[in-house]
């Protein structure tokens, strides 16, 4: 008897949404099969990869990734343009890390100026991220959402402690929203329920269950993402059907493996290759778990992920 | 777990009057409130409907589906009313459910309809000879209904077996037998047969304040035994709480602090 591949048929789906406006708008999510299980049905659209830029020069990034942008990274608009025009980025993620009170403590007005300049410079979808400071983010992101009104951006990240103001701003200015919880599937669901109760429809939410780098808890992120996808598909849990975000770059480009000099650890190999491999392997793993939107830093790592995607799809 | 909203029944005075006067408002209001409370299907019980049952069933289904995007459970003993209803039912949101066939030859034409219209059907495990005594007798009747279903060409996944819930106030020993029956029904087929109960029947005749308590505890046991659907009142908060909580405990839905609000 011929071997019959066992197939799972799911009643649920992953929500599909458009990010950005105009010709360069991109679609993420969709489908009703597990990632890359094309033999079982239609999976999500090809994951969208955004290159990360910042509102201040990336002084804290390791040299290997910093030098990729050394000619443009003192000007966010020029940096964004470089990502779009020279590197072919399909999306840009602007992290307003300089607004953090422990960093440059840039004002809300400064942040708004940066957002406007970046929006003028590129026409690919823009993801606007705060500095992950709960109080400051609820001021910065609200103002940024207003400044970007009508551009169908992704605003994030809304967390349990500050989601109300950020959700209201995304709602009023017609943006998508990243809802972040800290590696806890039940809290991820809870936050999505609370956001839904504010009248923000789930087809405008992206879930960020919090990322981690290979060797630094990747398996936790992986299993939370996998469980989210299974709840969405197998249990038809509508709160778990939004696309998933993997904010990979910031978790990779701070660990020992991408920073330790070759002189100290020659057996680890070339530092440049190490970092690129680390970021692309982390990103690829999370794509297998179900990520729909990746935020990455090194252009060569993005190239690697795209190559894998070309072969898998 | 599927809840089939039970409130559109000819037994209720308000519903009966609306049916007689073809007054859409009360019907749609009750249908909508049940759907919003979590019913995935709406039962339309028009009774024996000997006088123009066809017209009444057609009107009920179109009236309900005008407002509620869900399938309807067609509840009557009038076979031609069932068929008239099937013809107007909008299958966009799921197949309709016929309520019901049994092991009584008079009810066999319902299986014929289920095959002809490829819809779902409730198989009530009673025969012509009166009420079943225990789980074994119910399972025996279920097997006969399944065999007859195959004969008529009804796929097993379209049959919901109903063990017949009896009143706790008059036949207390039957409650546990019904739970055992649901458990037994799981082994009659692979994948297991779908099952349904008329939940509120357990508390029929009991004081008003006791009814939701009996209904909800009974439902928890039944879900644990493998129940797939219940004809019940989704506006009864205790029942929905029991259903959601049992699904959480059985790991069928993902826990979140606000799971009761979903």
Task: Characterise the protein shown here.
The complex is a heterodimer of chains A (313) and B (262). Chain A has a single domain (16-312), classed as TIM Barrel (Alpha-Beta Barrel), CATH 3.20.20.20. Chain A has helices at residues 63-66, 76-86, 108-121, 134-147, 163-172, 185-197, 218-233, 248-252, 256-259, 271-289, 299-312, and strands spanning 16-19, 26-29, 48-54, 91-95, 126-129, 154-158, 176-180, 205-208, 244-247, 291-296. Chain A is an alpha/beta fold. The model of chain A has no long low-confidence stretch (mean pLDDT 96). Chain B is α/β, with parallel strands linked by helices and 262 residues long. Chain B folds into 2 domains: 1-90, no CATH class; 95-262, Dihydropteroate synthase-like (TIM Barrel, Alpha-Beta Barrel). Chain B is 44% helix and 15% strand. In chain B, strands 1-2-3-4-5-6-7-8 form an 8-stranded parallel β-barrel, surrounded by 5 helices. Chain B is globular. Chain A binds chain B through residues 185-187, 189-190, 193-194, 197, 227, 231, 235, 237, 239-240, and chain B through 252-258, 261-262.
Topology:
The complex is a heterodimer of chains A (313) and B (262).
Chain A: E1 16-19, E2 26-29, E3 48-54, H1 63-66, H2 76-86, E4 91-95, H3 108-121, E5 126-129, H4 134-147, E6 154-158, H5 163-172, E7 176-180, H6 185-197, E8 205-208, H7 218-233, E9 244-247, H8 248-252, H9 256-259, H10 271-289, E10 291-296, H11 299-312
Helix pairs in contact in A: 2-3, 3-4, 4-5, 7-10, 10-11
Chain B: E1 2-5, H1 13-21, H2 24-36, E2 41-47, H3 53-67, E3 72-76, H4 79-88, E4 97-102, H5 108-116, E5 120-124, H6 135-152, E6 159-162, H7 174-185, E7 194-198, H8 211-225, E8 229-232, H9 237-249
Parallel strand pairs in B: 1-2, 1-8, 2-3, 3-4, 4-5, 5-6, 6-7, 7-8
Helix pairs in contact in B: 1-2, 2-3, 3-4, 6-7, 7-8, 8-9
């Amino acid at each position: 008897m011929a071997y019959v591949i066992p197939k799972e048929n799911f009643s649920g789906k992953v929500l599909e949404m458009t990010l950005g406006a105009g010709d360069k708008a991109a679609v993420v999510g969709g489908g009703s099969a597990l990632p890359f299980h094309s033999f079982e049905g239609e999976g999500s659209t090809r994951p969208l990869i955004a290159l990360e830029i910042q509102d201040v020069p990336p002084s804290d990034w390791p040299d290997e990734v910093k030098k990729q942008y050394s000619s443009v990274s003192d000007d966010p608009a020029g940096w964004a343009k470089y990502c779009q025009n020279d590197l072919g980025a399909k999306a840009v993620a602007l992290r307003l890390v300089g607004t953090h009170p422990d960093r440059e403590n840039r004002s809300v007005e400064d942040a708004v100026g940066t957002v406007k300049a970046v929006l003028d410079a590129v026409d690919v979808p823009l993801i606007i991220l705060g500095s992950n400071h709960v109080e400051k983010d609820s001021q910065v992101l609200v103002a940024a959402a207003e400044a970007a009104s009508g551009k169908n951006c992704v605003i994030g990240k809304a967390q349990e402690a500050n989601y109300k103001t950020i959700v209201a701003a995304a709602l009023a200015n017609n943006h998508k929203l990243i809802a972040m919880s800290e590696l806890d599937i039940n809290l991820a669901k809870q936050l999505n329920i609370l956001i839904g109760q504010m009248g923000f429809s789930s087809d405008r939410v992206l879930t960020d269950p919090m990322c981690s780098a290979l060797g630094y808890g990747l398996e936790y992120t992986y299993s939370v993402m996998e469980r989210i996808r299974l709840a969405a598909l197998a249990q038809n849990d509508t709160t778990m059907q939004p696309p998933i975000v993997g904010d990979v770059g910031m978790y990779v480009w701070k660990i020992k493996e991408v920073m330790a000099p070759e002189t100290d650890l020659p057996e680890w190999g070339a530092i440049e290759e190490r970092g690129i491999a680390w970021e692309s392997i982390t990103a690829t793993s999370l794509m297998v778990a179900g990520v729909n939107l990746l935020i990455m830093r090194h252009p060569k790592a993005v190239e690697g992920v795209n190559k894998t995607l070309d072969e898998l799809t | 777990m599927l809840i089939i909203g039970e409130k559109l029944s000819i037994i209720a005075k308000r519903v009966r009057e609306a049916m007689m006067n073809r007054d859409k408002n009360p019907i749609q209001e009750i249908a909508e409130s049940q759907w919003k409370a979590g019913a995935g299907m709406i039962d339309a019980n028009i009774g024996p409907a000997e006088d123009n049952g066809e017209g009444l069933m057609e009107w009920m289904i179109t009236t309900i589906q005008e407002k509620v995007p869900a399938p309807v459970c067609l509840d009557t003993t009038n076979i031609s009313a069932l068929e008239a209803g099937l013809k107007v039912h909008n299958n966009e949101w799921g197949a309709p459910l016929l309520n019901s066939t049994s092991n009584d030859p008079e009810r066999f034409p319902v299986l014929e309809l289920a095959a002809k219209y490829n819809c779902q059907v409730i198989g009530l495990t009673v025969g012509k000879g009166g009420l079943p005594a225990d789980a074994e007798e119910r399972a025996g009747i279920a097997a006969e209904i399944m065999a007859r279903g195959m004969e008529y060409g009804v796929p097993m996944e379209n049959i919901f077996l109903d063990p017949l819930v009896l009143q706790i106030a008059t036949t207390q020993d039957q409650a546990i037998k019904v739970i055992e029956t649901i458990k037994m029904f799981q082994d009659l087929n692979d994948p297991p047969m779908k099952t349904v109960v008329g939940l509120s029947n357990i508390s029929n005749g009991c004081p008003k304040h006791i009814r939701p308590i009996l209904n909800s505890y009974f439902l928890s046991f039944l879900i644990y035994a493998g129940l797939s659907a219940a004809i019940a009142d989704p506006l009864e908060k205790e029942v929905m709480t029991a259903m959601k909580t049992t699904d959480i405990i059985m790991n069928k839905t993902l826990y979140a602090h606000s799971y009761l609000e979903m």
